[in-house]
Amino acid sequence: MSRRRLSKQQRARIARIQEQRRRLADARAESLLGNGDASPPVEGRVIVRHGRSLLVRGSEDEAVHCLFRQNLGEIVCGDRVLWQPVDGGAGVVVALLERDTVLSRPDHAGHDKPIAANISQLVVVLAPRPEPTGFLLDQYLIAAERIGVRGALCLNKADLLDDTERAAFRQRFAHYEDLGYPLIQVSAKTTHGLEPLFERLRGHTSILVGQSGVGKSSLINALLPNPELLEGALSEATGLGRHTTSAATLYALECGGEIIDSPGVRSFRLGRLTRQELEDGFPELRTLKGQCRFNDCTHRHEPGCAVRKALEAGRIHPDRLASFHHLAAQAADH
Fold it and tell me: Which domain holds residue 299?
């Protein structure tokens, strides 16, 4: 069913209501600040956000329920912030600290909407079923390249395959390993089946991405020591109920890393990219930059094309070049 289009008056009314809510939230935050103590702001990490409420991890790993000022912009899971303690053990976030990285995706209006901040690794989860799509996988890896974080592939549900099928499944993605993307084969249902993933996550703030049905949620539950207790603690600390778990959430791992569970990355789209930006997202194309005879080479049929030459020599996988052409055609349509 198509979405009903709102009239100009309805859109204006919704905008007024949203602005009133923002003003009320700001007034509440300012009131809390006025009643707070005189201690200086302290640094914290955003564990989860729901509306104008944040759960912030303090310097002593305590979870603090905070509000934040509207003029700080879009605060997301993983952000580093300065927060001011107020009465009742709560706080108000007064500053958003500089981000190392931020993962975004376009909203319905085509504007980049941040999903998670300060990640250092993006792990794409694949499974034998549902059938993996290389096109979606390549979009995730382009996103990792563009924000400068490590990309890796996690082949899940290995227990569903026999030895021959498991080897064939891994071989299907072997060319990604040649590009520097590690392949991690795991199973959440077998003894020590998660050891390779724990090793890859250690020391990183990672986000797991992948299409619905690949077992991402099961993996995260298996990685966390007591996921139910953690979810209950989040709900109790925020006072927002169990639905807070539908928002991006930062968890500490026993292996020494962190993981962000975000429902917002199950169906992923890249924002608007120029052709040059798109080429930079493919490491095998990036290394050939400037080597084609023509500056505007489309890598389809032009003479002297370095990319076609590398394809014929087996240095570029045909599926990767097909993904590039598909995305380039979409970019040209914008």
Answer: 275-333
Burial of 18 (0-12, 13-18, 19+ CB in 10 A): exposed
- The CA distance from 244 to 230, in Å, is 11
- 79 closest CA partner among 49, 52, 108: 49
**Of the candidates 129, 128, 44, 49, the residue with the CA atom closest to the CA atom of residue 93:** 44
* Euclidean distance between CA atoms 233 and 296, whole angstroms: 55
Whole-model pTM: value is 0.83
The partner residues of 67 in beta bridges, in order of sequence, read: 53, 92
As for how many domains the chain has, the answer is 3
Rounded-to-5 percentages of helix, strand, coil across the chain: 40, 20, 40
DSSP code at position 77: B
Q: Each residue of 247-259: pLDDT tens digit? A: 889 999 988 899 9
- Name the residue among 218, 211, 210, 126 with its Cα closest to residue 170: 126
In 3D space, the residue among 270, 289, 268, 248 whose CA is nearest the CA of residue 331 turns out to be: 270
> What are 3-44's pLDDT values in tens digits?
456 676 766 666 565 555 455 545 555 555 555 555 789 999
Q: Are residues 129 and 214 in the same domain?
A: yes
The answer to whether the Cα torsion of 265, 268, 273, 275 is positive or negative is: positive
On whether both 259 and 301 belong to a single domain, the answer is no
